[in-house]
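Sharing a chain and its predicted structure for anyone who wants a worked example. Both blocks are below, sequence first, tokens second.
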Amino acid sequence: MTAPPPPPAAPLAGDITINERLNMTLPLSLPNLSTTTSASSLLGENDPWDMPVPYTALILEWYGYRDPLNVSDAAHCVHKALEDTSDHLMSGDDRIPLGPLPYSYSHGSVTLWLQVVPGKSLLWGIWARIVYLVPLYGERNDWRGAQFVVFVEESGARVVRGHLLAGS
């Protein structure tokens, strides 16, 4: 017996596409964050560092690296964002835009903050894909604080701005 084919991608504004059904498994878990190495650090190498957002025409760009974050606080902070996005996906909100107000996920000394750029929109399903990239950034950059933007690859139009910082 073979698995059914994936659903077709649905076009969204600005040629951004996302599958109708996201393949995300609950409960959410973060990778092992206790084993970061300086050899993999991007500090001084790639500032900014661009990460393609899977199945979209968006780029998550990290820049302005700061001091290392408390890894446990960062992991819990990111987990809160993952729980929030999964709650919205489980409620069927994947194709609903985030509102214009800032979104903030904090734990201990670390805050993950973002705001959709006025006049732009970002769907909860796309934000979920972006949040899943944050631990990869952290592991590759020794969990240093940074700012980020999300932009459309072709046009460079910014959609989101935010940061992952201590003491925010």
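Comments welcome. The longest helix spans residues 71-90.
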